Amino acid sequence: MGLLLYKQQTGAFLSNSVKEQLETSLERWGSAQLIVPSSDTVLLVKRQLGAIQELSVGVNVSTFDEWMRDQWKLYGSSDRLLSNTLRKVFFQQILDGTSADDLGTLTTSKGTVELLSKLAPEYLTELDQIMASGQLSAGQMSACKVLERYKMLLEEKSYVEVCQCLDYLLQSIPPQGPALIFSRVEDLSEARLQFVRKLSQKRDVAFSLYVPEGPAGYAAEQQLELLGGPGCDCRLDTGLAPAAKSQELTDLLARVFKAKEGNEVTPSGAVTFLSPLGQHAEAESISRYISQRVESGCKSFVVYTSDSQRVWDALSQKLAAKGIAAHYNRSVRIQDSLAGSAFASLIDAYATLSERSELEKNIDYQASDHQMGDMSWWPPRTLTDYLISPISGISVERAWMLDKSWRGNRTLYATRVLETLSKAAMSSRLCAETIKSLELGRIGSAAQRIIEYLSAETPDEQSEAAQSKELTLRSLQNQESLKVMNKIVSSAQELHEAGLKLTPQTLKSFIELCKDQAVMMPVSNGVQSDIQVLIAPVSQAHSFEPHSFDAVIFQGMDTLNFGVKASDGALQEFVRHASQMPKVSEFARYQRAFYTALTTASISVAFEKVEQKDVFNAVALSEVKACYPKDYAKKTGIARGEEEVLVNLLPQATDPERVSKLPTIESGEIDPKLKNIVVLPRHLTRETLEQELQGLIEVTREGLPLLSASQIETYLECPYKWFTQRRIKISQVDTDFAPMQIGTFIHRVLELTHATLLAEALGCDVAEVDSVVESALLQDIPGSRITSDNLDHAKQVLDSCFAQVWDEQFNNINRASSNELIPHSIQERKQVENIRENLKDLLEFEASHFIGYQPRFFELRFGREENVVEYAGAQFTGSIDRVDVNAHGQALIIDYKHKATKDLKAYSAKLSLDSELSKEILPRHVQSAIYAQIMRKQLTKYKLEPVAAIYLGTKEQKDKPSFALAGMATEAATEHIWNIHPEDKKLRDQAVMVVSQNSAEFADYLDAWESLIAQKVQAMLSGDVRANPCDKDACKYCPVKLCDKRR
């Protein structure tokens, strides 16, 4: 029995002292227990022991925590050891159930859980003494009270913390038995150090640490002193430190952190300073250094870095292009993995939808008040991340179809979303089974089903990959997903064993705690070579022995990437009261970590730091440079600039040979062979067209393209915008509560309001208005037009129609296109009410305009079924918002636009009083003009003569007049529209509307513009969809954000 402390300078895991203690224990007990710092070291040491005949049998090698768990199984109580995940779950549960008064300055945040999770394993057994010290702040006392509740919960659940486990083992481990031998185990926690010291009173314990001379050995010296006490007797290992193959490296190790002027290292080329002049030159600098060392005979390399993933991404393919194998033990956090992120998205969405579906039991959208409750959950965006992932079992097409249907429906019930997911026919079998498991609170079962699916998904691929010794990207992702889901299953199993039932409320907390867990994924760049490069964090160096690699590269040697680790202030302050032992300083740890990494080099070392303004050398780099003559590193450092962009960025690191100049392809340029996807050749039949175009383009029975006035307007704005919006049909993902939806709603309200007034005047039903009014088109029908006399009644009608349209939306909750203007917030409901009042004011505006004209048609539809309408060489379909008629058969073609004066000005045929209207140039907006021409030449059965094609702005403004009018009209029609006397001077908006003195001239403009539009239709037919915006407003709502012609 006793504690033997050894200082060794070889850095070997099986130093002379360690081997001696192992042999002694084997001779006495027939076995020995060797504790090493990491799982990687366990494998290394086992191989080394296998090569030593005397030690090849009887030595058990493990990390301390593995040994502790094994001892608990043998000598522990019936209580279970607590995992880190369960620890955090318990703390979160306690914090969530603690009142704000009891929490004091503590919060229920993730940071508080992390702090408490660090304190509990070390100091839970010392809690009474800590609280009795009387030196704690109010916040620290609150933390102690939470720890008290936590301690009681552990007793209730039959769990033990690490410190409790170690205290129990001290009593239960037999006093006689094999020795416990530690080799290069650094930074044991306080609870573990105390356990080792106390265990040595009943068992033989040997502790061997690598203690270099000078500051690099301070951390080890301090740890040995913590174990043995101040002035403890430490034995010196008889082994000598092996020399590096380079004298320069040996000298550097002897001088680093203790450099003296006049005792500098003599350079021999073994140490190199890399100074790329920008981050984009960094990977190429390292890659070239490795190539140069390969030429000089080096075969094994390690790149130490603080950002392994970034270095791997930048360097691995460059090395592959050189035929150099690269490896990286990737630590993948669950939240950063494809499967973990998707599963977390599912849990988040499911929890939200479940809570919402409970509320929906008392919610009916179709009730008179149409109350919907809190709709902040809509749309269920996080659910889409799950749907399109490999763990849903849903095809990508179906996933996006479901996503589109949900995002397009503002009256969506969460209950229906869950119903869809739980039905295999509507989602997938895997998805349905996963949802059923979550409904039962069995998150582990849900994850297990995904594991079974992934395991059965690519067995052949994995087998083939194993035979070829190359993992495909898909199989690598599959392996990662399996590891992640297994991690989640084990965590869920722990919760199940702890008797914790997962509810929708606790599901989110559980998955949040799981997100930070990590799985290890060994990855390579796929190259088979005897030249090997390992990318690793500096902390991994303690798993290697000295001279394990021919060459070592330290990447990012600046204060940002290689600085001294800062202490956790809150944790450190609490530990100051709780701890009975002094602490190893962070700077001593820093020196040891760097020195240990430096010793792993055998032939050469490179220190790399990007030269950037206000970014300073790391302490370690400054200490290395201090070992050399002044400015040596600056004079001899290898600099590389960023000017060779392709060389720096491309994996093959070569500047591609310049080929003949390639013609630039403009946005929308289409190969002539592919134009049949876009164009509509008129000589083909409808059947041939539909077969060739595969449903992309709608065509008529005659084989003509089926267009609309709004399509023409979009094409005139920009052909490419028309192509993307109308042919590819790129649209906004979510159904917004926006001007487009407001405009559609207003159209319907105004249509119904005016139709109701006309029906009342005709004495017929609203549904019969279109047929009845044809026989009375030119007659004066009192009450059909809004005047000051019937304005109040018209507003009442509007109120009724507004309510009807409002109800229609909620009565069609399964039709997304019918329920777009559904408010989800108080602000949106207020906006709807403002629209109602706004429309009443519009009726008042109409009462003083359009004198002599009475409304006759509303949403006059044309171009469908037998009502063939041809315009500009194409068949047109659409509807005219409103047609007002006077006693002479003259018609005002009115198109509603939800715009105010400022935005509606551009809709006038003449944009200013000085501008000249031309029959050779199309106006900026032609929709109402197209409608006027269709009324004049195609809808001839009505025998109406258009004298105005105008736009009525439905958006109220503070100015006078309160609503805007724009477009084109004859002079007489303009006077009637604006209600002005012929002798009165016209205002700007009134004057620019006048385009002709009579209807004949007005018709000439319509004819001329139809001819110009016909040319544009022919361009459309020829496949001309090149980007050519007419002005900057044309680009405003275009979905092509990266167009080279965007203004």
Radius of gyration: 40 Å
> In whole angstroms, how far apart are the ends?
84 Å
| Global geometry | elongated
- Low-confidence stretches at least 5 residues in length (pLDDT < 50)? 461-471, 679-686, 692-697
By oligomeric state, this entry counts as single chain
Count the beta strands. Answer: 25
Question: How does the SSE layout of this entry go?
Answer:
Elements: E1 2-8, H1 16-29, E2 32-35, H2 39-50, E3 59-62, H3 64-75, E4 80-81, H4 84-96, H5 100-103, H6 110-123, H7 127-132, H8 138-157, E5 159-160, H9 162-172, E6 180-183, H10 190-199, E7 204-210, H11 218-228, E8 234-236, H12 247-255, E9 271-276, H13 282-295, E10 300-304, H14 308-321, E11 325-333, H15 338-359, H16 381-387, H17 396-407, H18 414-421, H19 429-439, H20 443-457, H21 459-468, H22 473-497, H23 504-515, E12 518-524, E13 532-536, E14 549-554, H24 569-578, H25 586-599, E15 601-608, H26 619-625, H27 632-636, E16 638-640, H28 645-649, H29 686-693, E17 706-707, H30 709-717, H31 719-727, H32 739-762, H33 769-773, H34 791-811, H35 826-847, E18 854-862, E19 870-871, E20 874-876, E21 878-885, E22 890-897, H36 901-904, H37 927-937, E23 945-953, E24 965-970, H38 971-978, H39 988-991, E25 994-996, H40 999-1021
Parallel strand pairs: 1-7, 1-8, 2-3, 2-6, 4-5, 6-7, 9-15, 9-16, 10-13, 10-14, 11-13, 14-15, 17-20, 22-23, 24-25
Antiparallel strand pairs: 11-12, 18-21, 19-20, 21-22, 23-24
Helix pairs in contact: 3-9, 4-6, 4-8, 4-23, 6-24, 9-10, 13-14, 15-16, 15-18, 15-23, 16-17, 19-20, 20-22, 30-31, 30-37, 32-34, 34-35, 37-40
